[in-house]
Amino acid sequence: MAKTDTTVFVDQFTHGLIGPDVGFFATVSSGSRIRAITPPGCWGPMITPDFRGGHEVTQPVYVEGAEVGDTLALHIEEVKVLSSAASTGTMQVNDQAFDGDAFVAKKCPGCGRPWPSTQLVGIGESAIRCKECGAEASPFHFRQGYTVVFDHERGVAVAVDQDNASRFAEKAAYYAALPERSEQYSILVFAAHELTGLSIRMRPSIGNIGTIPAKTIPDSHNAGDFGSFLVDAPHQYHLSAQELDAVRTDAHLDCTDVRPGAVLLCPIKVSGGGVYMGDAHSIMGRGELAVHSIDITADITVRVDLIKGLDLPGPVLLPRAQDLPPIVQPYTSEERASFEALAQKHGIKADTEVGPIQFIGTGPDLNQAVDNAVGRAHQVLGISSDEVLNRATVTGEVQITRLPGTVQLSLLLPRALLEDSGLWSVVREQYAL
User: Fold this and answer.
1) 216, 185: one domain
2) Number of domains within the chain
3) Exposed, middle or buried: residue 376 (CB in 10 Å: 0-12, 13-18, 19+)?
């Protein structure tokens, strides 16, 4: 695919929303690179009361020639952790600090102002205060929280004690390495200090990356599971279930395999596509059981390729070869010879020229997410749902990407099927087939 020397550096963020109303930062051609220093997702925006979504993502970039019905291939080239420290944990909500959705419809528990202006007063979980009435205004607190410090060179992190957590809290924006134009409070302000001594590997990935939805919505809700909170919600960003399905692009994946070396194929819902990114993690286990992993400031670079005429209903992921499940690894030369010998003995031809692919599915729960992935595979590949199910059972599998409802449906597919659906060339390039 074509490559250019053009790189655009994005340094504007959208304050919790994503969609056509946030505008485009710049225009690039296919083959260009997009680079950004992305602030942490989740906890920082969550505790910042004037944010209208749970992340702080980059202003989208317009890609020349990208139209509805095409696909943008995002080649993940770099995800570099910049934070010196980070904090996360399991959450509890303050029921008095929001209406219907604590990630979106925040209000002051004291004076009732929606999305109130606030200021920091000291450190700790009571530090975020309404400028009007002085009430503690964060809609989120920790049930169990912890703070880690990083060794970037060795690729490790360790959870710290109260003294270190308090030291980081005093200079939270500095230790979090927040970009200059970031508008969130760093969660380091809370000085969480449980799990001292917990030793953690680093394996950076991107949690929210793709193309913009067809309607402006909270950035953390651009998926079928988190987006379901918008269905018939009591705030201004409410959608019907049908509207959600029509507008979302499922860019909020929280997929640990969206890391350097992977290729993410993204559907286009508006002209120009609108490539954006954010919510990077230093590491994340499959399922993200605590709901939030270790969110960090990251230096991210992706290369964008336009694939004309490839109409995807949702994201398709081509992970690094080593991140593929064993069942969908391309066949070795020895395996191919064995398949062909067995087939020849019975007068048939074996499909040995194959390639791996992953369909992303999302929904309010895991069962609906799997159904969504199967339906997308059926639509793109032009085969029956029964054939998708049979192939996925013996030459594929389902992985839990995020709870409550994001999955990766892995399939090992014949070249002819991939060629007919327009996917063979990008699969062949990714896996050197």
Assistant:
1) no
2) 3
3) buried
DSSP annotation of 60:
P
Element (H, E) at 166: helix 162-170
Domain boundary among 282, 310, 338: 310
Tell whether the model's pLDDT for residue 2 goes beyond 90. no
CA distance 96 to 295: 26
Model confidence over 254-295: pLDDT tens digits?
999 999 999 999 999 999 999 999 999 999 999 999 999 999
Q: How far apart are CA 60 and CA 53, in angstroms?
A: 16
Nearest by Cα to 1 from 310, 377, 319, 312: 310
Task: Give residue 356's identity as a one-letter amino acid code.
Answer: P
Round the CA-based radius of gyration of the chain to a whole number and report it: 22
Assign 186 to helix, strand or coil. coil
**293 falls within a domain:** yes
Residues 280 and 258 in one domain: yes
pTM greater than 0.90? yes
CA atoms lying within 13 Å on the CB side of residue 366: 11
For the chain, how far is it from start to end, CA to CA, in angstroms? 16
Q: Is 155 within the bounds of a domain? A: yes
Q: Which domain holds residue 419?
A: 321-431
User: Does residue 407 fall inside a structural domain?
Assistant: yes
User: Beta strands 316-318 and 156-159: pairing type?
Assistant: unpaired
